[in-house]
Amino acid sequence: MQSLIKSGGSALTEPPKGSVLDFVRVKKEEAAQKKDRKPKKPPKPETPPPAMEQPQMDSPTPNAEGSGLDFGADVNEGLSLDGGLALESGDGEYLPIVKVAPVYPRRALSRGIEGYVIVEFTVSKQGSVKNPFVVDAQPADLFNQAAIDAALKFKYKPRVVNGEPAEVAGVQNRITFQIDG
């Protein structure tokens, strides 16, 4: 930039004065050195390790004849295993599988109101909830819809009677609304 200003109006027709240096790098030949790295064998021990003792068994015979334990089972001949041994095959009560927490109503949350709702419903043959209704609520009518919506999302293992699922009416569940923290 400075040479342009110093030269003024003269055109750059003349080659620049001075010597130009050219750097040429010559590649140096290198030979890779390889080392033979093999692990050395450990020296042989002078004395062999001591012999280990035979462990003592509780029973002198491996089939445990003299152990005094009876592994026999009394099998009833009239027992039928046609349905298999799965959990669903035997008779049993309904069991809760999924219980969804209710959505706290915004109006009650902003006012800091807590309470509970007792909901009664029917557990269907498929384990879903049918016909929920409010039995008792404190305070009245504030948490009812949130409790019913939560109860409709509950899932149960249905009651099994004689190998067939059956409906269960009159199931009650208390849903408590508390502000945490």
TrEMBL record:
GO molecular function: energy transducer activity
Biological process per Gene Ontology, one example term: protein transport
Annotated segments matching region Disordered: 1-73
DNA repair in keyword set: no
Keyword annotations of the record: Cell inner membrane, Cell membrane, Membrane, Protein transport, Signal-anchor, Transmembrane, Transmembrane helix, Transport
Main subcellular location: membrane
GO-annotated cellular components: outer membrane-bounded periplasmic space; plasma membrane
Gene3D superfamilies cross-referenced by the UniProt entry: 3.30.1150.10
Tagged with keyword Transmembrane helix: yes
Biased composition annotated in UniProt, kind: Basic and acidic residues: 24-34
Subcellular location(s) per record: Cell inner membrane
Homology family: Belongs to the TonB family.
Purpose of the protein: Interacts with outer membrane receptor proteins that carry out high-affinity binding and energy dependent uptake into the periplasmic space of specific substrates. It could act to transduce energy from the cytoplasmic membrane to specific energy-requiring processes in the outer membrane, resulting in the release into the periplasm of ligands bound by these outer membrane proteins.
UniProt-recorded name of the protein: Protein TonB
